[in-house]
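Need a sequence for this fold. Nothing fancy.
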């Protein structure tokens, strides 16, 4: 049976972990809340979605082509809290111990890298994220694993995307271009909210079918609401559409997505160091050391009956320092 390729939107899940529980520290006063929640997530994935392929995909800074389109893109993002920043190295160490490759690429956001790998993956793909822009990737082979409030995952397929946003995955880019995305500082069309955007797209089709021919929008009120906003919609579509060309150094992708088996001893060491006691209880028990066989009574002094071997004479010219 083919296991899915699992692609984790790293920073979205790290920030989610940080804000899920606050004020959690170990006895040394080090913050551990993000490490704790992230460890629980990795354990949950290991138990419920075992896979030998996947990766954590990290952002590699803002990408130039989006900043050229919109200098204000993501300008509203605050600095990473220091209490989270100091946990990042431990989270990376923990993820590596679970066998996940950690991948990033200049001029690719994590979502772009996920798109590139998802489009080239052989077989089913699961994307671990709650970011709505990744819904554009969902198709017959690609699903989302959206972390649920009570430490589980909601599988979201194409029907789930339609139920959530009232548009299918292939219209998500247009949908977000119309309503905007506050988390990325992308303003939408004034007066167009989720319901209006969904109604427009479901009634009159994708944006490319009416951007150059507004008369295709049969609702005069909707058409009037969009007047003067077509350039905004075009720009937003370019900002939101994910770059899915695979970076050259990751081609072919399979070797870069190959997971290794979890190093449970290393995971245990990290959890002990960070004092994650409840996580330690969920880890597999370390194998018991083999019992040492007891010597038979008549063997205890058998060495006395053995002749003492002679000390070998060194070969001519051998120096003591050459023995090792």
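Here you go.
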């Amino acid at each position: 049976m083919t296991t899915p390729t699992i692609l984790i939107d790293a920073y979205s899940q790290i920030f989610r972990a940080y804000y899920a529980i606050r004020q959690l520290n170990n006895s040394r006063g080090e913050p551990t809340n993000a490490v704790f929640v992230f460890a629980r997530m990795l354990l949950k994935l290991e138990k419920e979605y075992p896979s030998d392929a996947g990766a954590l995909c990290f952002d590699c800074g803002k990408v130039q082509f989006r900043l050229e389109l919109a200098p204000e893109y993501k300008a509203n993002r605050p600095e990473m809290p220091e209490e989270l920043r100091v946990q990042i190295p431990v989270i990376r160490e923990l993820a590596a111990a679970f066998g996940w490759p950690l991948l990033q690429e200049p001029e690719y956001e994590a979502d772009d890298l996920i798109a590139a790998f998802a489009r080239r993956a052989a077989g089913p793909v699961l994307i671990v994220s709650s970011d709505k822009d990744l819904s554009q990737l969902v198709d017959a082979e690609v699903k989302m694993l959206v972390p649920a409030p009570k430490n589980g995952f909601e599988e979201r397929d194409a029907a789930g995307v339609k139920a959530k946003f009232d548009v299918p995955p292939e219209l998500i880019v247009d949908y977000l271009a119309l309503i905007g995305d506050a988390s990325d500082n992308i303003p939408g069309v004034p007066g167009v909210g989720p319901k209006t955007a969904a109604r427009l797209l479901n009634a009159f089709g994708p944006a490319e079918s009416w951007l150059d021919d507004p008369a295709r929008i049969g609702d005069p009120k909707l058409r009037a609401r969009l007047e003067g906003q077509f350039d905004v919609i075009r720009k937003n579509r370019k900002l939101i559409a994910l770059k899915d060309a695979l970076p050259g150094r990751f081609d072919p992708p399979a070797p870069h997505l190959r997971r290794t088996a979890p190093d449970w001893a290393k995971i245990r060491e990290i959890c002990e160091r960070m004092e994650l006691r409840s996580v330690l209880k969920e880890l597999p028990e370390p194998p018991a050391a083999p019992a040492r066989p007891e010597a038979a009574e008549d063997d205890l002094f058998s060495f006395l009956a053995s002749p003492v071997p002679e000390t070998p004479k060194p070969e001519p010219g051998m120096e003591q320092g050459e023995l090792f």
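For context: The longest helix spans residues 33-48.
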